[in-house]
Design a protein that fits this description.
The protein is mainly alpha-helical and 216 residues long. It has 12 helices and no strands. Keywords: DNA-binding.
């Protein structure tokens, strides 16, 4: 790695980790370019040499805070014997962590980041390769996929090939589960429902299981 790239990586990490600290101490909605710059010890203009907009800073910081989920999802999925079981278990893990950290998961999987969000994920793991340690190779493509719809579809297609679900229902089942999760998470964040986070998690999984049962 050349000196210029090393310097860019170092600065990138300074700003990302400063953003993580603000999120942990004040909340994700309190992140501003000026606050990040002040905490990192630089001026606001310097940040724009490395990040196009504040949403990218929030995204990268949120990825740092996603580590607990990425480490646990493989443990969950390894309990499954069939593609459908793995699909259900992956949703259980996803719901558990997303409703525990709704703002973080919204920033990664729902928030508008502009063009090519997958490129941002690749950049993140380039800067933090240690976050991929102990993650099975079969899960790495999932972690590089921000599009939630694509993340779950491959398991459903495998389940259809094994006759666990109707092949013609793969797309609709996948879309319904995604929309269900997105709707619940968005409503919780916008205070449109008076569920606790635990109730939201339980209800989402209950409805996902009902959708899957109807497709079997």
């Amino acid at each position: 790695m050349g000196n210029k790239k090393i310097q860019m990586s170092r600065m990138w990490k300074y700003f990302t980790e400063a953003t993580v600290e603000i999120i942990e101490e004040e909340g994700i909605d309190q992140v501003t370019i000026r606050k990040v710059a002040d905490r990192a010890g630089y001026n606001s203009a310097t940040i724009y040499n490395y990040f196009k907009e504040v949403s990218h800073l929030i995204f990268f910081a949120s990825m740092k805070l996603l580590k607990e989920y990425t480490e646990e999802v493989s443990v969950y999925m390894n309990k499954g014997q069939t593609p459908l079981e793995k699909y259900i278990l992956s949703w259980e893990c996803f719901c558990k962590h997303s409703f525990k950290q709704p703002a973080i998961f919204h920033a990664i999987f729902i928030m508008d980041l502009g063009d090519h969000p997958e490129t941002l994920i690749e950049r993140y793991y380039e800067m933090y390769p240690s976050d991929l340690i102990n993650i099975p190779d079969e899960l790495k493509p999932i972690l590089f996929e921000r599009n939630v719809t694509k993340r779950g579809k491959s398991l459903l297609q495998q389940a259809a090939k094994e006759g666990q679900i109707n092949e013609q229902l793969v797309d609709s089942l996948n879309e319904m589960t995604i929309l269900l999760w997105q709707g619940m998470l968005t409503n919780i964040l916008n205070n449109r429902m008076d569920y606790t986070l635990e109730e939201a998690e339980q209800k989402t999984m209950k409805y996902i299981l009902q959708i899957i049962e109807n497709a079997a």
